[in-house]
Amino acid sequence: MRNVAFVVAEPWHSTDWSTDLGLLVREFRRRGTDASLTCLRRVGPEPDYPVFEATSAEMTDPAYWRRRTVTVAIVFNWLIRAGDVLIALRAAGAFVLQYGDSDGLEGMRVHPGAQVVRMWHLQPSFLRKVGGVATLARKYLYGHRREDALLVRNAESAHLTTLTSEPARAAFLRFLRFARRTDLANRVRVLPSPVAAPFRTRPIEPRPRPVVVAVGRWDDPQKDAPLLAAALHRYLSDASPETEVRLIGGGGETPFARLVRDFAGVRYFGRIPHADLTDRLADARILFFASRWEGTPVVSLEMVALGGTVVGPGGLPGLAQFAAEGHGTAAVRRSPVALAQALREEMTAWESGERRPETIAAYWRVRVSPESIVDRWIEWVGNEKR
Length: 386
Known about the structure:
Number of helices: 17
Distance between the termini: 14 Å
Number of strands: 13
Radius of gyration: 21 Å
Largest sheet: 7 strands, parallel
Helix content: 40-55%
């Protein structure tokens, strides 16, 4: 792997991107590989590794990638975008991996539920919502061919497809079976997003107190701050008076106002630097979600790397994996009652000694380290080239 290009076929925010690509670029460079990032436009400060800005015309031109002598390309495209870029890279002779999360962006056939929920909560009026449901129903039943073709074309163009959780992989494999392209199934792999060193190297702290943390952009309908507040209110009404809740992220002043007023143990921190998040998670037991749709949030991986656990709706692939591993609890449905009950069950597991932070952290720290992720990519590329 002489020359590795991470490719984002859109503007890239160097300090506000859910996956810290720099962790992976730096790890390749530490090993002596000429690694860089290519995007349409960099937004934010210049990082400590090479970033190339390229136009759409350049990205879709094989000659551009040949001039760059790219041998391996890792394209972040949510599986359905940047198809022409994948084709150009393949034509230039690069080994191509498409890398995507699974938060419903892949289309109706892969995640129909997430598509409907997303549309319903983003449309401004009831009539627009009803019209949106009809449009998605037609799309699912009759108009899916173009979307399906894009997904299949990208899976064909990439030598490997990587998703961030096993449930996400299962959802994509169901789509491939529907599309009668099970021949592509062996190209679909699972790798989590990388987690920064402070979350992987900090000494594991005891968790004597019942502390719950929630992190999000609370003015984003995806995170459903009103539901999270309602579930927490129900949970705290009969929880231990020692319970502390830390709410982190911008836009929560209004939805969390009653919660902060009614319970002395609730603190709203607003938006904090990412470097400070380690301190807020390190002694907490539970990271809590009420999201309408979700992939595998990096903060959830940061939490388990510190030895904590995750509670959230069971219908979200990236969150359900933690309950399946015994590192969290999945709510049976997305309601205040069910989410509060899931919190109670998870806190009971902590009180009874079922949750062992050292064991949880040891399991996840290896999986989410940039070293492990790059090792797997190198192994896979080597096997495929034989």
